[in-house]
Amino acid sequence: RRLDRLRTPLCETRLMELSDTKETELAKRGVDAFVDRANELHHQGRHVEALKQLERARRLCEKKLGPSHTSTVKVLFILSSMRDADGTMRRPADTNLHFVVFDAATGLAYQNYLELARIIRRRAFVDELGVPFEVEFDSLDASSRHSLGLYGDAPVSYARWRMDQNWAVVDRLCTLHGYRHRGVARSCLQNILREVILLASRSDSPLRGLVVLVPQSHTLLQHKLAQANFIPAGDLLTRGHVPSTRMCLTLDPSMLST
Question: What does the pLDDT read at residue 10?
Fold first, then answer.
């Protein structure tokens, strides 16, 4: 009875809010799981099954998250890009790797592309390396340029870059597990390098080179970068509990005049 008297309307409201927050988080995780599975099935050619996974994600969004939630927007965007007018799953229009480059000035598509990129980053860094969620998705997203790699319609790789004291700094470079060892990361960096050189050639600010932040555990990527004349520099950086190495490439001034 004494405990019942202590349960004021304010306490009950707070308990309900905590319950709603937990339920929302569980729903978001469920949506991410459906989307991840749909991506895998799509690339296995099992298009009908992939569509069913996306429809399950959509129904979960409608029931638990509402039409304006970012997870709902993400699922509807993926569905619109993967379905034909009659509602059937569309096969990838292009089997070659290609890249979409975007930033905060891109417009309405920015948030949609960023949500696709977050799927890759969550799997590569949060799930595989244990980077805390709040560390992985930081405030630098808003000031960075983003490169999203796709096979057909499905995202498979990602990196972002920004200028820092005449250096183009690339981080969050990652590829989904099933697409590694195919030169995807190399193609992503080459695409970024071309963009950096193009923008630098139009700017009065000098460009010294490229810095790629690589998790210390990714020794193969460090080795590949070393073969491409990148050199490790400075002390290890740590985000969350994951130490990273700076791999630096100094650019020849003649490259900037082309």
Answer: 52
> What confidence score (pLDDT) does residue 147 get?
96
Three-class secondary structure of residue 97 per DSSP: strand
User: Where does residue 7 rank: exposed (0-12), middle (13-18), buried (19+ CB within 10 A)?
Assistant: exposed
Q: How far is residue 87's CA from residue 81's CA, in Å, rounded to a whole number? A: 11
Cα–Cα distance measured from residue 37 to residue 62, given in angstroms and rounded to the nearest whole number: 19
Write the single-letter amino acid at 9: P
CA 149 to CA 183: how far, in whole Å? 12
CA angle centred on 94, ends 53 and 168, rounded to 5° = 95
Any residues with CB less than 8 A from the CB of 166 and at least 6 apart, and which? 205, 206, 207, 208
Positions of the chain with pLDDT lower than 70, given as ranges: 1-20, 43, 68, 77, 80-95, 240, 252-258
Q: First CA to last CA across the chain, in angstroms?
A: 81
Cα distances from 207 to residues 102, 165, 167, 191, 193, in angstroms, run: 21, 9, 6, 17, 12
The Cα–Cα gap between 28 and 10 comes to 27
**Nearest to residue 115, comparing CAs of 80, 89, 162?**
80
The percent of residues in the chain predicted with pLDDT above 70, rounded, is 81
CA angle 39, 42, 44 (to 5 degrees): 115
Element (H, E) at 34: helix 9-43
Q: What is the pLDDT of residue 94?
A: 46
The predicted structure's pLDDT at residue 2: 47
Contact 222, 236 (CB under 8 A): no
Query: No. of H helices and E strands in the chain?
Result: 8, 7
